[in-house]
Predict the structure.
Amino acid sequence: MINSVTSEQSGINRLPNGAGAAAVLSAGLGAMTLAVVAIIADHSAAFKKLMIFYTPTGPLSGVTSLAVIVWLLSWVILNAGWKRKEVGVWVMTVGLALVAISFILMFPPVGDLF
Amino acid sequence: MEITSRSLWTLIHGMGFGTVYLLACSGAFVEFYRRFIARTGTIITSDSPFLKIYLFAMTLFAWIAVLTGTYVVYPWYRATPPPGTADLSGYPQKLLMSHAAIIGWHSMGMEWKEHVAWLVPIMITMAAVVVAQYGSDLRNHRRLRTAVLVMVLFSFVSAGLAGFWGAMINKYAPVTGGTTLTLMNGETR
């Protein structure tokens, strides 16, 4: 309790929020990629075939691999740019919003609307 | 007492790593609350690496659960039977799709589960790395702390959904087959 109050008041050892914000936003981008690519694969036979990275698993292998690639790549890039910076709160809000939207899009009755 | 190798893998995936992950979520929430929200003052220095190790263990469980699900169990679930196969019991997806009364377990359940489950390792990996990077300094970043906590909550709900649908699908169309393993020899009566 005492430590946290002292730290907040003095600002000593306070890390910039950039690295954390990069992690949150990239997680949102990864989640959104997963939802959007899954919907596209569901509606396009050609794209669905393209997403078969591993035949026994089918298109799910490509959809999830693509999402993981986008997530990690965006994390590395954003982290490199922001790790020593203080970024706006909007970054965290956008990251959370992307996860929430992708969560809703993954619900089949919603995904089937597109 | 026997079990098939495919049933065993399904067990390892769901009741093993999946269930352990779900149980671990409650501990993560308690630790988050204790350290960053309640600030009870009971956290001693030697206690500080606990949450980092705990979240990385959860990350490991989450990755093993989704990777075994996607690359070990799911191929057996979606296997295509040879033309003219009447008994679809070894082909869970086709079995579910062959009856209007149970098709929803695939079209709704599996379609949802196979995607939403992948949110779990993404969210918890992110949370583990942020907690490792910031440590106790996370107390000074209210918005970041809230975002991480919400992400862990998303991972918990996603894991719960995946677990629920997985259990129900396996109830109506179990993944079976493979080598039969004898766990115990019982006595016939």
